[in-house]
Amino acid sequence: MPRAMPGVLVQCDPSIKAIIVKINAEHNHDIIVEEIDEEHVLVKTSKHELLKNLLKDALKDTVKEAAESSESE
């Protein structure tokens, strides 16, 4: 029998969704409830703040890498 679970609908670009899916895999698939389409993911309410912090860290690293590679050119 299906169970109801509270969640937060996250709307993002496909590239950000790919990062979210990667973060979810690194955390034993404990963050995402359902991948809805290319731009929407349902995330466990209890893991939403954790995801925001992990995503912020992942994007910070990505932006640093992009800036460093453009400076060396």
Automatic annotation (TrEMBL):
Its family remark reads: Belongs to the TFB5 family.
Record Pfam families? Tfb5
Q: Which GO terms describe its cellular component?
A: transcription factor TFIIH core complex; transcription factor TFIIH holo complex
Point out the signal peptide segment.
none
- Specify where it is mainly localized: nucleus
Q: Which organism is it from?
A: Acrodontium crateriforme
Q: Where in the cell is it found?
A: Nucleus
What UniProt keywords are attached to this protein's entry? Answer: DNA damage, DNA repair, Nucleus, Transcription, Transcription regulation
Q: Which GO terms describe its biological process?
A: nucleotide-excision repair, preincision complex assembly; transcription initiation at RNA polymerase II promoter
Protein name as catalogued? General transcription and DNA repair factor IIH subunit TFB5
* Purpose: In NER, TFIIH acts by opening DNA around the lesion to allow the excision of the damaged oligonucleotide and its replacement by a new DNA fragment. In transcription, TFIIH has an essential role in transcription initiation. When the pre-initiation complex (PIC) has been established, TFIIH is required for promoter opening and promoter escape.
